[in-house]
Amino acid sequence: MKTWMIMPKLSVVLVCVLLCSGCWSKVEINERTFITTMYVDKGEKPGEIDISLSMPLPNRLSPEGTGGPGKNPYALVSSTASTIADAIEKIQTDLTRKISWGHTRVVVFGEAYAREGIQDAMEWISREPLFHLSSYVMVAKGRARDVADLTPVFEETPSDVLREFATQENMLKTQMLSVLMADKMNQGFAAPFLESKGTSMASEDNKRKQWTSQIGGALFKQMKMVDSISANEARTIAWANRKLDSVALSVETDKEKASMTIYNMNSKIKVRLVNGQPFFDITLRGQAELNSVIPILKVKDIVGVNQIEQKANEKVSAYLTDAIRSGQRKNADILMLGYRLEWAYPQIWEKLRPVWNDYVKNELQFNVHTQINIQFVGSESSY
After folding, report:
1. Taking the alpha carbons of 133, 137, 143, 148 in that order, is the dihedral positive or negative?
2. How many alpha carbons fall within 13 Å on the CB side of residue 320?
3. Rounded CA gap, 307 and 4, in Å?
4. Residue 338: its H or E element
5. Could you count the other beta carbons within 10 Å of the beta carbon of residue 45?
6. How far apart are CA 187 and CA 194, in angstroms?
7. In this structure, are residues 124 and 101 in contact, taking their beta carbons and an 8 Å threshold?
8. Cα distance between residue 37 and residue 196, in whole Å
């Protein structure tokens, strides 16, 4: 009787031990190389694609590393093939460690490749199980490979610089998930547009090095880059998407020239029906602090403050309107307004979805309204 009662308990313990035995196909961490950034360019020959992968070098990351002083703690390996999978396989063949995509946070597309279409790359990425959908998408003016040569003055690697571009929320922040959603819903999107230039840098003994800047936004329709917008327009797109931390703005009235910092930024996009057609109300809100006013503005000068607010609202509204119009000219719904329409009026969306791109270009109705409230006029105005 006692043996009969003990056997089930032993079986349970045995099962638990087997489940905790670990992975039979594990790969040791020191046998992997962790890709941090993927650069995708159009190849020199028709139909070819050029892939460059950035990865840290563990033996150079620590002070005891064998790399020696002055050597970069990261590597960049490139290969060209007719498909992404083949190019990556070529890279893997020459590496002494297995490629791991679990730490990849940025994908940069070259402009030529982006204009031909990023569909193949996104298809491969969406099928790679370790690739994070929260990774950031960017576009380089010229070749993406040139961005990989940027000088990481404040960070350890170029990959860290690109990642911080997104997380700081100073301009556009576009993630893989948003790109895939736009593709499935037949809508457009905007991604950060980068430019690399050689410049003399004091931090590098005045040597000429690559410096990468965010110069605006790249507009996409059906996974193809169709246009670009300015930095100011790109910031308002990020503001409308609630992905902008703060922004500096300068305006001029009839009497003053003022500069301000806008913070506590928010937005609201609502859709309503006007004569049976969707109409989009886009509202941008923010609080502001005046950084400078010439001539000096007194606290009691409420009229002057109101005029500055009005000019700021008009300027921001114009930036966002111009950005949306740029998308319209290319049939691109860069704010994914169709997504809002589907939630509010699904039956109307079902009718417009097959022709949404043409509808955006010819019939889209919207209004941009900005509410910037100046909270602080500065200490100079107290005397």
Report:
1. negative
2. 24
3. 89
4. helix 337-344
5. 8
6. 23
7. no
8. 16
* The two structure tokens encoding residue 42: 């159009």
Cis peptide before 58 (omega within 30 of 0): no
Closest CA to 181 of 242, 130, 260, 122: 122
User: In this structure, which amino acid lies at residue 115?
Assistant: R
Query: Which residue bears the tokens 């690109």?
Result: 162
Looking at this protein, which amino acid is placed at residue 311? K
Per-residue pLDDT of the chain (383 residues; tens, 9 = 90+): 455 555 555 565 555 555 555 554 455 667 888 999 999 999 999 999 999 999 988 766 655 444 455 678 888 999 999 999 999 999 999 998 899 999 999 999 999 999 999 999 999 999 998 899 999 999 999 999 999 999 888 888 899 999 999 999 899 999 999 999 998 888 899 999 999 988 888 878 788 888 999 999 999 999 999 999 999 999 999 999 999 999 999 999 888 899 999 999 999 999 999 999 999 999 999 999 998 888 876 655 677 788 999 999 999 999 999 999 999 999 999 999 999 999 999 999 999 999 999 999 999 999 999 999 998 876 554 44
> For the chain, how far is it from start to end, CA to CA, in angstroms?
96
d(CA 139, CA 114): 7
Sign of CA dihedral 184, 188, 191, 194: positive
* Owner of token pair 């009235």: 253
State both tokens at 59: 């033996």
